[in-house]
Amino acid sequence: MSLLLKDRIYSMESPTAKRGVYPLHGYKLGLYRIPIKLDDPTEMKSIFEGLKKTFEMDMYADRIYATYRWQEENMEDPDANGYENVDLSITVEIVTGEVVDIIYQIFSLEKFGDPQWVRNYRKKADHFAKMVMDTILRNTILSDKMIEHFIKKQTMSEDDARIKLEELTPLAQIVPDAKPKPVKEKPKPAIGKKQVIERDGEAPIPGPIDVDYKDKMDLTAPFKTKTGNEVKTWGRMGADNKVMGVWGEFVSVDFDICIGDGACIDACPVAVYEFFDFPGNVASTKKPLQINEPDCIFCLACEGVCPPQAIKIYPMD
Predict the structure, then answer these.
(1) Considering the entire predicted model, what is its pTM?
(2) In what order do the strands lie in the sheet with 251-254?
């Protein structure tokens, strides 16, 4: 927001800094706090990916760094006697969280070898930092968040909000394709070492259940039932039920194949199963949960009536 910062350089002491202390807070720096939320790792990665061809980008924990570099020369002719040049840089830091802080630190010239012949170093560093900041706010998903904020908090139209953002970021460079769609990484199994069967949760898995699933799927987090029994799981990914894998060590049901028709519940003579809601699974949003797996008598009735053949009974040794 270079228009708001204008030509001033603010000095920020550590007690006023977000989360306590900013690195090297004793240096002069510019600060702007934006009242928008940014804590989704996929959105942070979108900013990083969108500008990596424009600036030197880095990301660590809850922070994104954009560095701009330029070169100064003490004379135009590189072949002239006494010619010198120096590479200078300024880094803008985006601190994410419930609010977004954008800061930049102007180091002393000595950091770059003390080239005293450089003129207006601080002014140039301040200008380039504001250019980086404006470019980030105008081009990345932060622009969408800012426009949404203006619409909600200042009750203005989308067009007026967009104009306001453009007015507040006059130094912005236009970067095409700087808003790559955030892509969430596939969740990994809780305990991993051998996952061979890969699923994305976008479509039902056809039966029958793979009888060798224990050799092809990782053992994942168990599920505790209302009866106090723990149901072991294999190949379960995340907690959104998109990829559920196989549940049950002896009464094994592939919940990504299971269509939740309830035939196994009706067939079981000892009430091993009970319907349980698992919203988010594409095959069915309710499953026959093995709440009483230890009571199984291994009659194989459920295995025989399952339409998609999602069940496999393994007699206890």
Answers:
(1) 0.53
(2) 219-224, 230-234, 246-247, 251-254, 311-313
